[in-house]
Amino acid sequence: MSVLVNKDSKIIVQGFTGSEGTFHAQQMIEYGTNVVGGVTPGKGGQLHLDRPVFNTVEEAVQKAGADTSIIFVPPAFAADAIMEAASAGIKVIITITEGIPVADMVKAYDYIKHMDCRLVGPNCPGVITPGEAKVGIMPGFVFKKGTVGIVSKSGTLTYEAADQVVRQGLGITTAIGIGGDPIIGTSTKEAVELLINDPETECVVMIGEIGGQLEADAAHWYKASGSKKPIVGFIAGETAPAGRTMGHAGAIVGGSDDTAQAKKRIMRECGIHVVDSPAEIGLKVKEVLR
Q1: Which residues belong to the annotated binding site?
Q2: Where in the numbering of this chain does the CoA-binding domain appear (predicted)?
Q3: Which of 21, 63, 82, 129 has its CA 20 to 30 A from that of 166?
Q4: Residue 20 lies in a domain
Q5: Directed axis angle between helix 214-225 and helix 188-196, to 10°?
Q6: Per-residue pLDDT at 77 exceeds 70
Q7: Is 248 labeled as catalytic in the residue annotation?
Q8: Quick one: 105 and 169 in the same domain?
């Protein structure tokens, strides 16, 4: 079992023929991901990477049966791409694009919130179910199949956590990079909930960072759920000065509850196994799974 993407997902690439779309689509195809085509307005009817190009997402849904999309559209047009995918019936919309204007994301978030779809990102590394589907920009070779789910705001820490878990002789069910922007489609809580409810996932790694309430919300949900599946947590940004953006646009400490120390305290109070360094993630996962 997996969440969000698997070998049966029919994936299209929005921004297919651009340089980023081409490079990462090629990597996804080489990994074995079921990429059924792509969308570039005005280039419909062509072949690209031996896959059909469509003018619209609706056409890709009708002709290729697409149910999942990954977006490499430039920031000025990416919110429109999200809304187009949702209105065409795409169920999982993974948005890699960084730098989408916040006002555009407010509009897109509001537009899709009552639709039957799930948005992951923007400004995220994507989602991978090892051995089945890599829908993102992560290095596929790092991820091996197993029973540990990963939820992370940080792209590089997603790969680091996966590498550590694999080095301990374990593996990953699905890794979800939720993205670090102020407005994202899938929250930490929602991603953690997906993995806690996945029968094959025995442990979840939750990687957060300073700024916002996402990790605290996830921790409170976990405590209230009564789940016996262990969560190993890490918060990046311990030494960040208050009020300064650190890497991600969402990583701004606004108050006393936004700091790494406060988040770690809340997580511990809710029964999460918190580590103080990303170097400890793999060992802690192995320990809690014994």
Answers
A1: 17-20, 43, 96-98, 159
A2: 4-100
A3: 21
A4: yes
A5: 30
A6: yes
A7: yes
A8: no
**Binding site membership for substrate: which residues?**
159
Question: Catalytic one among 24, 114, 220, 248?
Answer: 248
Structure tokens at 2: 């997996």
276 lies in a domain?
A: yes
Amino acid at 97: T
Q: Say if residue 214's pLDDT is above 70.
A: yes
The rounded distance, in Å, linking the Cα atoms of 119 and 115 is 10
Mean pLDDT (the chain, rounded)? 95
Tens digits of per-residue pLDDT, 106-139? 999 999 999 999 999 999 999 999 999 999 999 9
Domain of 86 in residue numbering reads as 11-120
Domain harbouring 168, CATH code:
3.40.50.261
Say if residue 44's pLDDT is above 80.
yes
Structural domain includes residue 3: no
CA 51 – CA 29 distance, rounded (Å): 10
Would you say residue 90 lies in a domain? yes
Q: What's the confidence (pLDDT) of residue 2? A: 86
Binding residues for CoA: 17-20, 43, 96-98
The domain total for the chain is: 2
Tokens, residue 141:
């070779």
Q: Tell me: cis bond preceding 122? Omega within 30 of 0 counts.
A: yes
